[in-house]
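Now for a chain:

_____
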Amino acid sequence: MTEIFNADEAFEMAERIEKNGAAFYRKAAEKAKNATTKNLFEELTRWELAHREIFATMRSELAAGQTEPLVFDPESETGMYLKAMADGHVFDTSVDVAKFFTGKETMKDVIRTALKMERDSIIFYLGLRDVVASKQGKDKVGDIIKEEMRHVAFLNKELAQND
């Protein structure tokens, strides 16, 4: 597979996805009909915002070689592409949150939807890892995946407690 991204670009996408996730969960919290569901969405919002900060910190700690563009890009098309990729995957910013949450869902339904989105983010990052060269920070994309896996573990625990 051709390596087309560096770790800096991967973290840029990760930060954008987390920002989109926070906005998504914030809107879901506004639609929630009961306090328990609202609290879970607010917690998920905080998670996404915290992850964005973690990824921003990881990004700032990248080695110089992991931030160098891999292609000549005088028109900044890579940045536009990265934004489109992040906005169209996992937390699609063009989709109304009402498509996912009407306010009638059970807590288990809410957790299952959140789990699906977290798993989708892991799948996205696994694919992204394949297009980041080792010397460009492939291992750093692995760090993003590990962070997302922590969310899945927590949500699985919550799901088990709501049986």
About this structure: The chain has one domain: 7-68+76-161. The helical segments are 7-31, 35-60, 77-88, 107-129, 138-161.
